[in-house]
Design goal:
alpha+beta; six-stranded mixed β-barrel; 14 strands; two-stranded antiparallel ribbon; 15 helices
């Protein structure tokens, strides 16, 4: 039987230990003392358990959300600005939500020619329809786009070819499909070269874009068909009853993120000039900087994480105060034991180390349980709550260190109080 096992199992040896105690002696006596009051020790550690678990869950959710936002930004395309009609307002006249068509091909051409920082510019129109291939059909969305659209939105080809200049100029009936459309219409087969019917118009599939997955707003980005803009105007746009030359959206890309503020400002000035909007008048368009949008969401996530971390920290402090209170009670209850140990040779340092060890073990035990609950809670939240979770080993190690530090900090005063007891006065108790 080891010395540690003997100390745990024999209270007389723990009480009668004399001389300078070793580390094993101190830990053995601390474990024995805590085991004798295991319920009180567990309740004392509850604050630390809740605090550590809350820190891990909140940090995991915060980092997971940030990673999700970064992925969303990468899928949407970086350094991008969206220009859309301001539905309900056109040249100062109130209109229905679906009747404002303020953007045109002329606007897109002016942006290309007059804004140097606008490296990529693509107009776009879209609509929904039924798509048929052989005996399969699927309801999806088609996008009529220009050449820069694939660059600025970071769409890459998984197979086949992209549109040629002749396709854009000649309104060719060529289509590029997304992964979801390919799965619904062709399964695992290669769709390149096959015929599909978009609405009533036959198209030849010339390519498939690489999958992007879910957008930041919950939509399936791969459930899409791309066709040249002029093709969409001539063959698919009739059912939308839109004026000739109308664009539903203009996407503008810059070379670097630093150019975004300047290009955004120039876009606002240019479009107000082209649309003859008087000073002080309401814009009939909206300019949205996606980097700023994601940045705002990131800042909101960061602030919420800080708030929740502050709540968790308060819980740790409350748990630490609970440890201090219980250790003070323990000192009061064990005055005679302390006096006896000092009388047979234990130094104040030995007494202080024992009570510090007890406080540290309570806090460390609570920290370990809190880590288990935090990791388990984070995994459950990810599985059943659809929350983005990213566990970080550094955070777990930091939480463990913080748990030990909590025990040492809040256990120091009770340990000092025990070490300063007069052995003669203590033996009289």
């Amino acid at each position: 039987m080891s010395r540690l096992e003997a100390l745990i199992g024999a209270p007389t040896e723990a009480s009668a230990l004399s001389g300078r105690a070793t580390l094993f002696d101190i830990l053995g006596m601390a474990i024995y003392a805590l085991r004798g009051n295991w319920m009180r020790s567990t309740l004392t550690a509850l604050g630390v358990i809740i605090g550590i678990a809350a820190v891990i869950i909140m940090v995991s959710v915060g980092q997971g959300t940030q990673a999700r936002l970064d992925e969303t930004m990468a899928r949407l395309g970086s350094n991008r600005i969206e220009v859309m009609p301001n539905f309900g307002q056109s040249r100062g006249v109130r209109m229905g939500a679906e009747s404002s068509f303020s953007l045109t091909t002329r606007d897109a051409q002016a942006i290309r020619q007059r804004i140097p920082g606008a490296t990529y510019v693509s107009g776009m129109i879209r609509g929904g329809t039924q798509v048929i291939a052989a005996e399969q059909n699927w309801s999806t969305q088609w996008n009529g786009v220009e050449a820069d659209y694939f660059i600025v939105n970071d769409w890459k080809l998984a197979r086949g070819d992209t549109f040629s200049d002749a396709d854009y100029r000649g309104a060719a009936t060529h289509a590029i499909i997304g992964e979801t459309v390919r799965e619904k219409l062709f399964g695992d087969s290669d769709p390149v070269g096959t015929m599909i019917r978009v609405g009533r118009v036959p198209f030849t599939v010339i390519g498939e874009v690489a999958p992007k997955g879910e957008s930041g707003w919950g939509g399936d980005m791969d459930d899409v068909i791309f066709v040249p803009l002029e093709t969409a105007r001539r063959r698919l746009m009739g059912q939308l009853e839109m004026p000739p030359g109308t664009l539903m959206r203009i996407t503008v890309g810059t070379s670097t993120a630093d150019d975004l503020p300047e290009v955004e400002s120039a876009l606002n000035d240019l479009l107000r000039e082209l649309h003859k909007i008087e000073p002080g008048g309401e814009d009939d368009f909206r300019v949205r900087n996606l980097t700023e949008l994601v940045g705002a969401r990131t800042e909101t996530t960061r602030l919420m994480s800080m708030l929740l971390a502050a709540v968790a920290t308060i819980s740790l402090i409350v748990g630490g105060i609970g440890i201090m209170n219980i250790m003070l009670v323990s000192v009061t209850e064990r005055i005679r034991e302390i006096g006896l140990r000092m009388a047979i040779g234990a130094t104040p340092g030995d007494i202080q180390k024992q009570f510090l060890a007890e406080a540290m073990l309570i806090s460390l035990g609570g920290g370990v349980i809190g880590i288990a609950i935090g990791v388990g809670g984070a995994m459950l939240a990810s599985r059943y709550g659809s929350l983005p979770i990213e566990l970080n080993l550094q955070v777990i190690l930091l939480a463990t260190g913080f748990a030990v530090a909590t025990g040492l900090f809040f256990g120091y005063y009770p340990a000092q109080k025990a070490a300063r007891l007069d052995p003669i006065e203590a033996l009289r108790q």
